[in-house]
């Protein structure tokens, strides 16, 4: 199993309730998983725990056989090899598209960095925009650049937090299919969280429904609240 999340628990400071409660999930390499849930269900917190932005109180996370966190180990966020696409895209406004993408390519030689920037710009069909600034791009274009930046270092795992929330309905439908094609082309294992069931159905290989900080996978031995919904073919 490429990713193993077992019995993860987490509570925010001054909260009496667990935000994430014995969350368990196994993911195959190259699989796209959607965590579907309402606001406050704990789905975005799961991404923060995976990325290392928060530390669980108990449980373990393994990626490709390497422990990211357990009761003895905690790998720093920058050492995890995880790419993230944030809800607001988080592009640097004072940097060009090319500079935004190359920012995360630490340790690359200059020629290799330029080559990789060109590769991911071609992947998201944005080669013509490499010298533009974020404010010169539409919402859909900014999202593609944010995706290119996250994919540039060839992450072991891609996390997307409500990736369509800032797009209008028509663009949202168009971008869904583009996003799935791009991720599948790279073969990157991905998890995206959303409150929109149609987003989940359009992109995910599996949908995990999250409630009260927990999810249930039919193949899991964990006893938790929630439900698992395999993606139906209609």
TrEMBL record:
This is ABC transporter ATP-binding protein. InterPro entries: AAA+_ATPase (IPR003593), ABC_SmlMolc_Importer (IPR050093), ABC_transporter-like_ATP-bd (IPR003439), ABC_transporter-like_CS (IPR017871), ABC_transpr_FbpC (IPR015853), P-loop_NTPase (IPR027417). Keywords: ATP-binding, Cell membrane, Ion transport, Iron, Iron transport, Membrane, Nucleotide-binding, Transport. It comes from the Bacteria. SMART domains: AAA. The keyword Iron applies. PANTHER family: SPERMIDINE/PUTRESCINE IMPORT ATP-BINDING PROTEIN POTA, SPERMIDINE_PUTRESCINE IMPORT ATP-BINDING PROTEIN POTA. Gene3D superfamilies: P-loop containing nucleotide triphosphate hydrolases (3.40.50.300). The keyword rRNA-binding does not apply. Residues 3-233 form the ABC transporter domain. GO terms for molecular function: ATP binding.
């Amino acid at each position: 199993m490429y990713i193993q999340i077992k019995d993860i628990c987490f509570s925010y400071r001054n909260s009496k309730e667990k935000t994430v409660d014995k969350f368990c999930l196994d993911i195959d390499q190259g699989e796209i998983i959607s965590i579907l849930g309402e606001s406050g269900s704990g789905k975005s917190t799961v991404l923060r725990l995976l990325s290392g932005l928060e530390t669980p109180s108990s449980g373990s996370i393994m990626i490709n056989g390497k422990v990211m966190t357990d009761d003895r180990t905690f790998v720093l966020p920058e050492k995890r090899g995880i790419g993230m696409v944030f809800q607001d895209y988080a592009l640097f406004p004072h940097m060009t598209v090319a500079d935004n993408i190359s920012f995360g390519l630490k340790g690359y030689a200059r020629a290799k960095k330029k080559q990789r920037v060109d590769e991911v710009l071609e992947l998201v069909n944005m080669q013509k925009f490499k010298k533009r600034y974020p404010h010169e791009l539409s919402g859909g274009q900014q999202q593609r650049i944010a995706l290119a930046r996250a994919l540039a270092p060839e992450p072991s795992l891609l996390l997307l937090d409500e990736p369509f929330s800032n797009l209008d309905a028509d663009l949202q439908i168009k971008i869904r299919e583009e996003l799935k094609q791009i991720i599948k082309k790279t073969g990157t294992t991905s998890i995206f969280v959303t409150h929109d069931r149609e987003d989940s159905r359009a992109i995910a290989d599996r949908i995990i429904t999250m409630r009260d900080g927990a999810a249930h996978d039919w193949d899991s031995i964990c006893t938790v609240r929630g439900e698992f919904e395999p993606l139906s073919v209609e």
